[in-house]
Amino acid sequence: MTIKEIEQTIIDEFACFDEWLDKYAYIIDLGKQCPVIDEKDKTESNLIKGCQSRVWLSCEHRDGRLWFRADSDAVITKGIITLLIRALDGQTPQDILAADLAFIDQIGLKEHLSPTRSNGLTSMVKQMKLYALAFSQKQS
């Protein structure tokens, strides 16, 4: 599936919920499906800067695609990074760099997060795009 197709699936899933409390519960449930980072990779260099809670993100480049693993000490944050991984995992660096991730605004996620969590979300997206940039330059 393309990033746009995955984003549309996420938008459709969130449309099933009328209340934001239900959407938060869904995000927390998604966090339980997070592709968990290996304990050995929970290092300072994999810690995302700018997040209120601790979020570790690793990236592997395999067969021209990027594969992400993550973990967080906060359940809501773990759910948010899981959403991002779901959209970007297994995609090419070029596709990740080109992705606008409009689903974040379309499901109303940013506007329903506290300012510090919203900053954390921005930091997570930035880190994933930095991985994509680094691996796209290695391919050139």
Please explain how this structure is put together.
The protein is mainly α. Helix content is 53%, strand content 11%. It is built from six helices and two strands. A two-stranded antiparallel sheet has the order 1-2. The two termini are 24 Å apart. The relative contact order is 0.18. The model has no long low-confidence stretch (mean pLDDT 93).
List the SSEs and their pairings.
Elements: H1 3-15, H2 20-31, E1 55-62, E2 65-72, H3 75-88, H4 93-98, H5 103-106, H6 115-139
Antiparallel strand pairs: 1-2
Helix pairs in contact: 1-3, 2-3, 3-6
Main traits of this protein?
140 residues; mainly alpha; 6 helices; 2 strands; 53% helix
How many beta strands in the DSSP annotation? Answer: 2
**Mean pLDDT over the residues:** 93
Structural class from helices and strands?
mainly alpha
Q: Provide a count of the helices.
A: 6
How much strand? 5-15%
Helix content: 40-55%
Biggest beta sheet attributes: 2 strands, antiparallel
- Using only C-alpha atoms, the radius of gyration works out to 14 Å
